[in-house]
Automatic annotation (TrEMBL), chains A, B:
Domain of life per record: Eukaryota
Name the UniProt record assigns to this protein: Amine oxidase
Entry binding sites for substrate: 352
Similarity section: Belongs to the flavin monoamine oxidase family.
Domain annotation Amine oxidase: ranges: 15-459
Length: 544, 544
């Protein structure tokens, strides 16, 4: 039995668990750490696979793939592990199709989609409002945000219904929700949405591939390497694959973690799996009911990600960037695609069937789904799209020990009542995983941040001398849910973004006013409004 | 191993599981049925306990307790088991306290609370709107309701915010949500609320103790007897207590149900536990992801129920009925109390700390909670309330294999996407439990209905000759999620209730109009409006 005593057992060998293990090991190499992973691989929601491509085979990411230059936790890890990034290709015409299947397919080149001036005004006013709200929310303890109960009592859908002027913008917001969360705007709390956006530095950062945004860079060789390199450093002997944790017992002296075949005693546990899976573990004694109520109500998104390889990147030759956005009524199964040509030049596109489309398409035959994807690609990019080399997809809802992707959201009414349970340790159990992050929550960078935070909590218990004073205070504040609230990325930019937004909204309101005043000035106003996209674009770029 | 082969294994020995077992056994006594129950008792969310009382000891219900005369499935069972009901005592002054702690405590005698005329008008208009919507929803398949996506995309809170005119009514609606669901209006889909109300025959039925309503009758000796009598008839040897199911495997021939100590082969399984607990079972092969997404997002309510016994029912002597309703800002921990004097005359009150109050009060010391309850009772009913015999409470969030009470609700965005998974069998697994009921969903009657429906599904598979043609068709329609939609209680009354409601609203609007027209007619109008409560009251009574 002595062999089965560990200092720290970590549930889940994804980026969060491995980051935690790595930090603990660096600070105190004497601590015995074990990672238990249900899957037969490390990496959690990141997985990199080899598929046939123009020059034989190549590797693509079928889970998390992008890195942004403001994702400091992840960038630092990439640097430390000696990995390299390269930019997301986004030069050329982008395709925008919203409305009914026979609606006009539009092309655009800016970072904001090809919308009519009126819808662009609508977009600017709603982004301004949301950005202002984002700047006020308290990411660390959302219940302390102004109007927290009110904002948490409505869905994102309800907010958009109340504040968007045009049906087109409502459709755009549905698309955003689907592509960011794999979920419809009806399924999440508006306050959660604000907190999530604030943790990333603003709404636009979630959507764009411009500098600082979520879709800016990719990792050469794929993101699963992050976990593989970390496992290497932590020691593969300390990682047990195919070992799903079924129960965690605690008494005054020990925690006991059990799998179907093992029972391990330890001094601290870090649970890193997504909340809906953490909820399936049997805890004895039972967790506080607040924690149970929280994890019962944090649904995970649904995304089917596909990679399709080609002999050549014909879309680039035709002046396209490879980016397509398609609304929910277009008959197109996917919501978004991007160029995915590999660093070694193997041409590919990556796309996402997400939210309600994933629900609709997931139960269908793989062949039918592929046909629908190809047929849409042909429609948007040309007949060359039909001559692909290989089509490979991953339905994350069907992945054991994930059950969905990319992130768990919070349904309305959770943040104001149960949020403290998200990170508060329960005895010897500490909580990590990207859902518990306060910077880039839901992203790989958040997974790293959360893992490191949980590692510090454990070190503070097991060997506090390895922590700096600052780290000790951070752990103390985090657990006490009080003290100086951590400055979020967005709040740093509050004044800056508000000032710029005021300019846009003044422009917008004036234009709207003029429009309403007299119909015969319409043409003049329209010509002015045509400049709005570039104004917004430059605003966005400078703001990010 | 042969000894461990069963025809049907039922997970959960609550009212739903036992009703299923009883019906299957009646139709085909040769079928081997086994019930597995995690708790050390039968009854699930019904439990009857003995506590000190005026004449020594007596029994009270600490879980589900009321029966309504429109709850046909439950009434039939009560009759069959030879149990007796008696009416909820509701004669005398009722106490109504809303607003700040120092707001006026009002008394009233009708079934609707003591509200100002203006708030009563507001209540009548919102009930009229909700009742009209209730009459249109399709309980069997809510996604087929008119405007389903819209209604499911908002919370009950958002609907009330948009349609209630007064802050007082908004507070009343919060109270209703808390007392019916143990949950705040922000935590559930508005469409779910409508479906739930429609399955009961209308919103008022959920709230009242008048004939036909949810709080009309009680069972002499307590409701747990229902399950105990059923277990007697099914045979106690076929009920294994302390046997929580951890996994269900299925192959072409068998289902295998495992607990920590047993592994049982069977031909069919009925899972009756609440969705959030059904979600914790490990299924192999995995359930369809739609089902996983559904059960991940059906949180259970939080209620702490208390019984407090007295030497005499002093409140009756003082002209009170024992019914108190208290709003969320009054400093009163409970939301509602009722007289709970036993059939043998032992004086008692029953009360509920619910929703956000349960969240706030649950982690506190039992003594502190008791003191707060007693202090509020003294405030509302007089100093005699301090001289109690015994105070006993049950926090359902802390009850193993329940984790909450009274019912699981649906967060927004579920009904329109994942609802079919609620009842659709998954291979050999059938789903019961009150959450799957179409009549009085969430109540004991719904538990019986759901158990019987699942029993018929199993019989249709194992021995179809035991079913009538009508039953076979019902099973077929239920599983195909198509065909003639079952007529709900509410739809039967659609025209009736609409006509009556129109009268009320006309009255209301006219009054409001007059009020707005001229201030010097205010007194006249006010005297007219004082009649509104009785109009509404008679409307409600006739409607129910």
């Amino acid at each position: 039995m002595t062999a089965d005593i560990w200092d720290v057992v970590i549930v889940g060998a994804g980026l969060s668990g491995l980051s935690a293990a790595y930090l603990i090991g660096k600070r105190n190499p004497k601590l015995k750490i074990l990672l238990l992973e249900g899957k037969d691989r490390v990496g959690g929601r990141t997985v990199t696979s080899e598929i046939p491509a123009a020059n034989g085979v190549d590797r693509w990411d079928f889970g998390g793939q992008w890195v942004g230059s403001t994702q400091f936790h992840l960038l630092e890890l990439i640097k430390e592990l000696g990995l390299e990034t390269y930019p997301q290709f986004n030069t050329g015409k982008k395709v925008h199709h919203m409305g009914k299947p026979n609606a006009k397919v539009r092309h655009y080149r800016t970072s904001l989609p090809a919308l009519s001036p009126w819808v662009l005004m609508d977009l600017s006013q709603i982004l301004w409002k949301i950005d202002r709200l984002c700047a006020t929310v308290c990411v660390q303890d959302p219940s302390k945000s102004p109007r927290a109960v009110e904002l948490d009592s409505m869905t994102l859908h309800s907010y958009v219904e109340q504040h968007a002027w045009t049906a087109e913008l409502k459709e755009e917001m549905g698309l955003c929700s689907r592509t960011v969360f794999g979920m419809e705007p009806s399924q999440m709390s508006f306050l959660f949405f604000l907190v999530y956006a604030a943790a990333a530095g603003g709404v636009l950062r979630l959507l764009e591939s411009t500098p600082g945004s979520a879709q800016e860079l990719k990792i050469k060789g794929g993101t699963q390497q992050l976990s593989e390199c970390l496992a290497e450093r932590v020691g593969w002997k300390n990682v047990r694959l195919g070992s799903a944790v079924t129960a965690i017992w605690q008494d005054a002296e020990w925690a006991r973690v059990t799998t179907d075949t093992d029972s391990l005693l330890c001094r601290a546990v870090i649970v890193t799996c997504p909340p809906h899976l953490a909820a399936k573990i049997h805890y004895e004694p039972a967790l506080p009911s607040q924690r149970e109520f929280l994890t019962q109500n944090m649904p995970v998104g649904h995304m089917i990600k596909f990679i399709i390889t080609y002999q050549t990147a014909f879309w680039k030759e035709n002046g396209f960037s490879g980016e397509i956005v398609a609304g929910s009524s277009t008959n197109c199964p996917f919501s978004v695609t991007f160029d995915a040509t590999s660093p070694s030049g193997n041409a590919a596109l990556v796309g996402f069937i997400a939210g309600k489309h994933a629900s609709q398409w997931s139960p269908k035959e793989a062949g039918e789904r592929r046909e629908a994807v190809i047929s849409s690609l042909v429609k948007y990019l040309g007949p060359e799209a039909a001559s692909f080399i290989h089509y490979e997809e991953k339905d994350w809802a069907k992945e054991d020990y994930s059950g969905g992707c990319p992130v768990n959201v919070m349904a309305p009414g959770l943040l104001t009542y149960y949020h403290p349970s998200l990170r508060n340790p329960c005895g010897r159990i500490h909580w990590a995983g990207t859902e518990t992050a306060t910077q880039w929550c839901g992203y790989m960078s958040g997974a790293v941040q959360a893992g490191q935070r949980a590692a510090l909590e454990v070190l503070a218990e097991l060997c506090p001398t390895t922590l700096t004073q600052e780290e000790k205070e951070a752990v103390w504040y985090s657990q006490a849910d009080q003290g100086p609230v951590q400055e979020t990325i967005s709040s740093k930019q509050k004044h800056l973004s508000t000032n710029k937004a005021v300019v846009i909204v003044t422009l917008t309101i004036s234009a709207a006013f003029l429009l309403a005043q007299h119909r015969n000035v319409f043409q003049t106003v329209k010509s002015h409004l045509m400049n709005v996209p570039s104004v917004i674009y430059s605003y966005c770029n400078r703001n990010l």
